[in-house]
Amino acid sequence: MKLARYGSVGRERPGILDAAGRLRTLASHVSDIDPTVLSPEGRAGLLAIDVDALPIVVDTPRYGPPYVGVGKFIAIGLNFSDHAAESNLPIPTEPVVFSKATSCICGPNDDVIIPLNSLKTDWEVELGVVIGKTARYVAESAALEHVAGYLLVNDVSEREYQLERGGTWDKGKGCDTFGPIGPYLVTADEITDPQSLEMWLNVNGKRFQSGNTRTMVFTVAQIVSYVSRHMTLYPGDLITTGTPPGIGMGQKPKPVYLQQGDVITLGIENLGEQRQRCVSWSANLFAAWP
User: Fold this and answer.
1) Is the pLDDT of residue 30 over 90?
2) CA proximity to 280, closest of 111, 103, 104
3) pLDDT digits (tens, 9 = 90+) for 218-268
4) Is 24 in contact with 15 (CB distance < 8 Å)?
5) pLDDT digits over 80-133, tens only?
6) 10 Å Cβ neighbour count for 28?
7) Confidence (pTM)
8) Distances from the Cα of 18 to the Cα of 4, 50, 97, 107, 210, angstroms
9) What are 5's strand-pairing partners?
10) What CA–CA distance (Å, rounded) separates 159 from 171?
11) 8 A C-beta contact, residue 32 and residue 68
């Protein structure tokens, strides 16, 4: 299943894509797509629905984040060896774990706001893993049983905030709009191998990132198992699993960073595509936010 939420910011409604890729409303069956819906029981209930009998959403609505109730937004750093090399950092021997603020989450095609006084805002195409069943000290062999589904993430990052201003990475990763997710959540039954997905990202039509999840240092199963030994993972928690090479910071002979008006497009095989326009920070951007 491909689950989505559509509508204006703060007023999104639940939806599902049919076999032809048409968006249909789920509003008569669920009030929203939340951790209850993402649980094994919730997903089983959705599978019983005749999707082709659902009303088609006839206009072209905004896609919002494909579910609500992200309790934790966990990220894994340096999880592609060639990305670690372009960052001039060693390949990790254990997963590098940090957090993105849940307030950074936005829709897949919403504007990315370059923070006030930012000089080094960057991009990262990543595979997101959504937890569907509580995971605590889970064995690697059972880890994927706790995954509800997968989605596309742009792990937008401000490199000066992240690396040059002391403290942890978190403050360079959690700015408003630094977490576009979606356009939809693809349930785990449709992704037979999360370690075989093509990934790409363009800026202004130029290809910067190309990769495949098969080259991840730590697999999805290893990551879920590892993180579950350090914190309990609950339904709705989101883990973004690292990026292939081609980030702006790693460009030669000098880095390339996002500017006002730049357009980012990105995608992962079977998980859809995103498109974001970059805008400069201003106070009035937040006037209509919920």
Assistant:
1) yes
2) 111
3) 999 999 999 999 999 999 999 999 999 999 999 999 999 999 999 999 999
4) yes
5) 887 778 877 788 999 999 999 999 999 999 999 999 999 999 999 999 999 999
6) 9
7) 0.96
8) 11, 10, 36, 20, 29
9) 14
10) 10
11) yes
Q: Which residue has the tokens 């805008």?
A: 279
In words, the CATH class of domain 68-282 is: alpha beta
Q: What is the mean pLDDT of residues 171-200?
A: 97
**DSSP character at residue 232:** -
Q: Which residue has the tokens 């797509």?
A: 33
DSSP string computed for 86-139: HTT-PPPSS-EEEE--GGGEE-TTSPEEEPTT-S-EE--EEEEEEE-S-BSS--
**Structure tokens that stand for 181 in this block:** 């997710």
CA distances from 211 to 86, 128, 215, 228, 231 (A): 14, 15, 8, 27, 29
Residue given tokens 């006037």 in the structure block: 287
Q: Which amino acid is at 24?
A: R
- Residue 49 amino acid letter: I
